[in-house]
């Protein structure tokens, strides 16, 4: 079919894609005195025996993001952080004071006096491959992180305590490094992620996972299970949770300029039918709500799906502006179950790994909008400036346990029921004494200023 495609609506242009494109460095002024940081917990003597499990809140549609609640500081206060396997730096909107902060669920984080110095390895890793951003090694470490959706956060690296309950029952308060963001740019969207910041989970040194590993607290492994019903869980550390069989493991692709979780090359199939798309590298990025294919793969996907659509059952729904491509039935769809039979799974065959497959059933690439239409949750990445990158966002990672093993340098997945949070899970937010107080009121940012 050769149809006129409607232009990408604002809500899509503005979708949050937490994909770091680059860091720039600058020397800003920041009113917190320097103070040497305290050394965090020493390495656990008997290796790693424990992990962290965080319940996840959110959904692909209508919210558009998944977040965890972390407690930070002394006394600890809760913050909602968007989980992002596509970037390293964790940051919080911060009262430093804040030049430009966006509405957030909790009061702004107030930094303590622990500034990270410019000669800190984490500062260097954040600015890599550029040179050290500092004139003097004792300077504060400024950061400026830019995301693919033109959002950004600018601030300074700080250290503070994160009270965490490990699955073995121990509660520790490791000092972790993160960004105190006092200048955020967000895409001008009506669907802003309603969070206090971002939890960076990519494989760079500055990511929370690497830091916990460096401190000897957890293994350098993380995983998530995001439910199509909303919610799910995130874990860091031990592989106790990972089923020993059935997981499909594929070695990560290495590209020196890419600090992201990437697999490939993959061949794209629709049901049993191979498309002409092959050699596709794909990035696993929970910071992106939807998936993105490069222009060519996108075109092939769209035309293949449309080729197989029964035009008597499904028609173009150009009037639905939720996403660029939508279909309607004879009556509004209530759930994905109503359309499942009209579509086949999209399949990625990893040709360097014995054709091991990542199967994307219709619910991993379609949403049912509030108007009762089915819309394609795979978007044209070239159109939003991603060039040749292909991204598997939240929508395509749902209802699977996806595991990133940075030690063995492989990514694995297995179909899972993400509604069941593992028993050992104790929300760290329920385990710290200070949280016996009522939670902070929503939108109470102003109280604090
Ligand atoms: C529990 O796990 C943490 C993190 O790995 C470790 O530091 C602690 O010593 C462990 N506690 C016990 C009682 O084994
Ligand atoms: C894709 O993988 C499946 C299962 O591994 C294999 O049977 C099939 O031939 C592959 N198809 C293509 C086009 O590579
Ligand atoms: C994808 O976006 C690019 C860049 O805007 C455009 O040239 C191309 O036609 C688009 N592809 C499809 C199939 O819409």
Verbal overview:
The protein has 449 residues and is mainly β. The chain contains 6 helices and 28 strands. It has 2 domains: 50-239, Acid Proteases (Cathepsin D, subunit A, domain 1, Beta Barrel); 248-417, Beta Barrel (Cathepsin D, subunit A, domain 1). The chain is 9% helix and 31% strand. The strands form 5 sheets. It has a 14-stranded mixed sheet with strand order 1-6-7-10-5-11-4-3-2-13-12-27-28-14, covered by helices on one side. Strands 15, 16, 17, 21, 22 and 26 form a 6-stranded mixed sheet that branches. It has a 4-stranded antiparallel sheet with strand order 19-20-24-23, with no helix packed on it. The longest helix is centred in the C-terminal third of the chain and has 14 residues, at 295-308. Mean pLDDT is 83; it is low at 1-47 and 424-449. The structure holds 2-acetamido-2-deoxy-beta-D-glucopyranose (3 copies). Residues 5, 295, 298-299, 380, 382-383 line the site of one 2-acetamido-2-deoxy-beta-D-glucopyranose (NAG).
Q: What is the strand and helix layout of this fold?
A:
Layout: H1 10-13, E1 20-23, E2 51-59, E3 65-72, E4 77-84, E5 91-93, H2 121-127, E6 142-147, E7 152-161, E8 164-165, E9 171-172, E10 175-185, E11 197-200, H3 208-214, E12 221-226, E13 232-237, E14 248-251, E15 262-270, E16 273-274, E17 280-284, E18 291-293, H4 295-308, E19 315-316, E20 326-328, E21 346-350, E22 356-360, E23 366-368, E24 374-376, E25 378-380, E26 391-392, H5 394-397, E27 400-405, E28 410-415, H6 428-431
Parallel strand pairs: 4-11, 5-10, 17-26, 18-25
Antiparallel strand pairs: 1-6, 2-3, 2-13, 3-4, 5-11, 6-7, 7-10, 8-9, 12-13, 12-27, 14-28, 15-16, 15-17, 15-21, 19-20, 20-24, 21-22, 23-24, 27-28
Bound molecules: 2-acetamido-2-deoxy-beta-D-glucopyranose (NAG) (3 copies).
Organism: Actinidia chinensis var. chinensis (Chinese soft-hair kiwi)
Protein name: Aspartic proteinase Asp1
Region (Disordered): 428-449
């Amino acid at each position: 079919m050769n149809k006129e495609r409607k232009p990408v609506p604002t809500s899509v242009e503005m979708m949050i894609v937490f994909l770091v494109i680059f860091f720039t460095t600058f020397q800003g002024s920041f009113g917190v005195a320097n103070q040497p940081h305290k050394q965090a917990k020493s390495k656990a003597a008997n290796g790693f025996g424990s992990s962290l499990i965080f319940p996840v809140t959110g959904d692909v549609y209508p919210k558009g993001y998944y977040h965890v609640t972390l407690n930070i500081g002394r006394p600890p206060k809760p913050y909602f952080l968007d989980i992002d396997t596509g970037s390293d730096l964790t940051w919080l909107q911060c009262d430093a004071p804040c030049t430009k902060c966006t509405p957030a669920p909790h009061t702004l984080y107030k930094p303590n006096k622990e500034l990270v110095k410019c000669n800190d390895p984490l500062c260097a890793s954040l600015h890599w491959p550029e040179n050290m951003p500092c004139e003097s090694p004792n300077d504060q470490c400024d950061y400026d992180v830019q995301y693919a959706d033109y959002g950004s956060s600018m601030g300074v690296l700080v250290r503070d305590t994160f009270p965490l309950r490990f699955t073995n029952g121990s509660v520790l308060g490791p000092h972790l490094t993160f960004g105190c963001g006092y200048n955020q740019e967000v895409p001008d969207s009506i669907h802003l992620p309603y969070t206090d910041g971002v939890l960076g989970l990519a494989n760079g040194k500055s990511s929370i996972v690497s830091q916990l590993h460096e401190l000897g607290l957890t293994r350098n492994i993380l995983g998530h299970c995001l439910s199509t019903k909303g919610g799910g869980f995130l874990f860091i550390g031990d592989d106790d949770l990972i089923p020993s069989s059935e997981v499909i493991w594929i070695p990560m692709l290495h590209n020196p300029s890419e600090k992201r979780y990437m697999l490939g090359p993959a061949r794209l199939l629709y049901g049993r039918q191979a498309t002409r798309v092959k050699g596709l590298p794909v990035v696993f990025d929970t910071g992106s709500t939807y998936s993105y294919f490069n222009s060519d793969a996108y075109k092939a996907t769209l035309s293949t799906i449309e080729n197989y659509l029964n035009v008597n059952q499904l028609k173009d729904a150009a009037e639905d502006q939720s996403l660029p491509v939508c279909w309607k039935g004879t009556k509004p769809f209530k759930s994905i179950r109503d359309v499942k039979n009209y579509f086949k799974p999209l399949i990625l065959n990893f040709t360097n790994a014995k054709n091991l497959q990542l199967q994307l059933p219709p619910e991993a690439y379609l949403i049912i909008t509030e108007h009762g239409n089915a819309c394609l949750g795979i978007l044209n990445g070239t159109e939003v400036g991603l060039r040749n990158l292909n991204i598997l966002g939240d929508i395509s990672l749902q209802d699977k346990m996806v595991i990133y093993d940075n030690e063995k340098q492989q990514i694995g997945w297995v179909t899972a029921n993400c509604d069941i949070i593992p028993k050992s899970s104790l929300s760290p937010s329920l385990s710290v004494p200070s949280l016996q107080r009522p939670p902070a009121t929503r939108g109470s940012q102003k109280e604090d200023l």
